[in-house]
Amino acid sequence: QYPVLLNGIASMSIFESPREVQLAILERLPLCDLIALSLTSKDARHKVEPLIYSDITLTWKLKDPPPTMLLLRTFLDRPELASYVRRLDLDGEGFRIRPPYLYNTQKPIALPNIVTLSTEKLSQIAKYTTNSPEIINSWIHEAQSGSSDAVAGFLISLMPNLAWLSFSEDWTNEVKYIGLVFGSATYRTFEDSFQPRLPTYESLKHIKLPLFIDEEYYLDPPNTLDVLSLFYVPNIGTYQYDGGCVG
Q1: What are the extents of the domains in the chain?
Q2: Residues 218/185, Cβ–Cβ less than 8 Å
Q3: What span, in angstroms and rounded, lies between the C-alpha atoms of 49 and 87?
Q4: Superkingdom of the source (predicted)?
C-alpha cells in the first residue's frame, strides 16, 4: 500500500492512482485477494467491499453448508454491505444428487444455526412487510431456526440493488417469506408512501427458478400464490427455469 523505491523510481500505491485505474485493477483480482486487501487498512476496506459483496453465491452442500446465517447477521449489523449486492445465487446440491433423479435421503431440513440473529433487527424488517404479529413472529422464529425460505426472505429484503436472483430447489420448496418480501415490494397503498418500506427492486431484471421441487418430501407445497409475487417485479426482463426461459 505504501510507495517504495524500485530502481530509484518511487512506485505508487494502487489507492493513489485515479479511481478508474483502481477499479480496473481491483476488478481483476480474485475474491481471496480482495478479502486480504480489505484487511490492510480502513481505506482499502471501503474501496474493495463493493466488489467483495457484488456477486454472492451460497451453495448448500450436505457436508459443507454455506455460511448463510453468518452472512445474514453481517448484513443486519451493516446494511450498507447488502446494498452492494447485484447478483445472488442460492445454489445447492439439491435433494437430488448426480446423476439426476437419484434421491438423497439425507437432505438437510434446516440451515445450520451457528450465530444468533437479532430478534429486534429481524422484527424491524418483518414489520415493513406485514402488520400481522403472527406472521412476524413466525418469520423470525423460522429464520432463527434455519428455515431456508425465512432466511432467504430476510437476505433479499436487505438487497435494494439486486439485479440477478437465482434459486436452486433447495431454497424453493416453500417460498412463503420470499413471496411476502416481493409482494410487499410490488403492492403499495397510499399509506405506504409515508412509511419506511422494503426495496422495490427496480434494478432486478432476471430471476431464475428451478424446474423441480422436492416431490418426495413435499407432495403438496402451498407455493402457488406465494410465488406469483415474483412475476410482478416492476422491471423484470427474463424469468428463467432449468430447461427454459420466459422473456
Answers
A1: 1-53, 54-239
A2: no
A3: 15
A4: Eukaryota
Cell 413435499 sits on residue: 218
**Residue appearing with cell numbers 517504495:** 4
* CA–CA dist 133, 147 (Å, integer): 19
The C-alpha atoms of residue 247 and residue 238 are separated, in whole angstroms, by 4
N-to-C CA span, the chain:
46
Which candidate, 160, 161, 185, 156, places its Cα nearest to that of 171?
156
- Rounded Cα distance between 88 and 55, Å, is 6
The pTM for the full model equals: 0.79
The per-residue pLDDT for range 67-99, each reduced to its tens digit, is: 999 999 999 999 999 999 999 999 987 654 444
